[in-house]
Amino acid sequence: MIDLYTIGSQHPGTDPTWTTIDIQGTVRDKPITPARRLAGLTYRPASRLYYTVAPANPEGPLLCSISTAGALEKLGPTGRNMTGGIAYHGADDCFYALSNEPDGSVKFHRITTSGQAGELFTIALGVAVGLAYVQATDTFYALITQDNFTWFYSIKKSSTVTKLFGAGLRVFGGLCHSPSENLFYFVANEEDGFSYLWTLALSGSVVKRMGLGYNFNHAGISMSPWFGGSLNIKSPLEGERFVSGETTSLDANILSATGTSWNSDGIAWRSSIDGALGMGSPTVTLSPGTHVITASKERLDQSVTVRVFADLGALYKAAPSPAEIGRVLDDFTFHWVDGTSGDPTQQWASYPGFPFDQTSPNPSRTAVIAKLDVLRHQRFSQPLPYGTAATAYEQVRLNTHTIRVSLDTPLNMAGGGVINLNRTFTTWWNNPATPTVAAPYVHSLYLFNHESRHNEPGDPGHATCTAWTGAPGVDNGMDAKLDPGSGFARATLYLMWIYKYARYDPPAIRAEAKNVALQFKNYFCEHPTSSNPLVRALLAELWNA
pLDDT for 105-140, tens place per residue? Predict the structure, then answer.
């Protein structure tokens, strides 16, 4: 793992290099082009770049940035003599640096991100060799050498400077702070110029860690963005379910010890079943089974378990994970509405939590969530013949913000971005004759798509022709056409698409969708028409059956 970055040289007499340090013992370097002397090193999270000073640049001192790959870029002129270290201060998005003046004094400067420097105050007499900032205490710390011995200083922006304790002999190579360990790292040279990495604690403990190479003096050292951090898998969710053939997006980031996020570049993915899955943020298709998906970079890793099923029917029969339930609950505002007062069968308190029991006839919040999650995974080989979204689930989300789920028996209805669902949607199977059969989710979902249509702009309502005799009390309840169509047209098209173009729904669900679509003949004033040739072909097949 890359724990620290520094600018130095592993061999005497060679140009400075961009050097990575693994504190378990590995030091690697690469050339910096163009080669030049550089002083100090600090990291700015917002740009994900390191910053340093080229104090002896031919055109004058420059502030420079360096990427994690070692690419150097000149930003702008800065103050002279900035050889004592540089540190980033996030509160004002500026750098602070120490200069070593010709008169032997060390001065404290503020530098903008474009390189404009302003002197603040004098620190001490000596030679500054490193500067670090600790956000937790809003304090800068410096290493300053006096008479060949190096001292550890604290510096406040208020100009309070405190000489704390001695750090040792010949400290020449910069200073940085590890928030996760509350330790400082610095470089000190032996008499022959060979450099060692050391740690320093505020208690005064100074420990030699490992050898680095030659000529790391006055260069600078900084922690890697992910040192002391953790790897966070954003996708897939823990316990998430997928269908065989469905694509899965893999995404993760690295959180530093201070919570700063680093992207997925260089993260490697692996499945316990399918092996290597790619780097960065790949999109993959997983084999059926239960996978342990692991993301790793350097010595950081995290794993989640995902489940891949043969089809949507099998997925529906498996309990959704807490993360999946939470995702649907986040997509909509849910109101769980009691029915008649005094009737315990119509009180949600009688059915607490999110139980998963498909053999139970009782209402369940999970039954509602599981059906909507099926809609999340449903895909078709031909684009949906209605709406503007890529999936039926996203089409609902475009126009619906609230779902009210009641335990009494009013009609399903919708309007103004709200869908009202009755008790049948809360049970695993809405056929009273077979209440303990976990069967077609398609019955609930065609009703849900029907009601969703009433939240969309341009919904004509059910007022296009003669009254629908199948629903007492509902006047003018039939549709004349499929597009643009109202709720009955939307439900019919949804069912027809499952029957003909569903990618993941099992044969039994597709057959049931066809059966229900055939029943919708009685919901239209006449043989409906459509401008979509695929719809017309299905109409000919279904209405002539």
Answer: 999 999 999 889 999 999 999 999 899 999 889 999
Domain closes at, from 178, 201, 223: 223
Pull the structure tokens for residue 458.
């341009």
Q: What is the DSSP string of 391-453?
A: SHHHHHHHH--EEEEESS-PPPEEETTEEEE-GGGGSS---TTSTT----THHHHHHHHHHHH
In the 8-state DSSP scheme, what is residue 483?
A: S
pLDDT in tens, 64-87: 999 888 888 989 899 889 989 999
CATH number at residue 160: 2.120.10.30
Q: Which domain holds residue 115?
A: 4-223
Residue 254, burial from CB neighbour count under 10 angstroms (0-12, 13-18, 19+): buried
Backbone angles phi, psi at 247, to 5 degrees: -80, 150
Whether 374 contacts 313, CB under 8 Å: no
Question: Which pLDDT tens digit goes with each residue over 237-289?
Answer: 999 999 999 999 999 988 776 666 677 778 999 999 999 999 999 999 999 99
Contact in structure between 168 and 140 (CB atoms under 8 Å)? no
Which residues make Cβ contacts (< 8 Å) with residue 268, sequence separation at least 6? 276, 278, 279, 295, 296, 297
> In degrees rounded to 5, what are phi and psi of residue 424?
-60, -30
Tell me how far apart the alpha carbons of residues 386 and 455 are, in angstroms, rounded to a whole number. 14
Token pair of 538 as six digits: 């299905």
What is the C-alpha separation between 447 and 453, in angstroms, rounded? 10
409-414 long-range contacts, CB within 8 A, separation 24+: 409/339, 412/447, 412/450, 412/451, 413/451, 413/454, 414/451, 414/452, 414/453, 414/454, 414/455
Distance CA(539)–CA(545), nearest Å, equals 9
* pTM of the complete model beyond 0.90: no
Domain count, the chain: 3
Residue type, 339: G
Q: 217 and 234 share a domain?
A: no
Nearest to 54 by CA among 31, 30, 75, 28: 75
pLDDT in tens, 329-385: 999 999 999 999 999 999 999 999 999 988 888 999 999 999 999 999 999 999 999
219 is written with which tokens? Answer: 């260069």
Q: Are 264 and 328 in contact (CB under 8 A)?
A: no
If asked whether residues 474 and 329 sit together in one domain, one would say: yes
Please tell me the least confidently modeled range out of 12-21, 245-254, 467-476, 530-539: 467-476
> Is the domain of 154 the same as that of 289?
no
Q: What is the mean pLDDT of residues 192-215?
A: 85
Looking at 203, 223, 243, the residue that finishes a domain is 223
**Residue 206 and residue 176 share a domain:** yes
Q: Rounded to an integer, what distance in angstroms lies between the CA atom of residue 424 and that of residue 220?
A: 68
Q: Are residues 319 and 455 in the same domain?
A: yes
Position 429 scores a pLDDT of 75
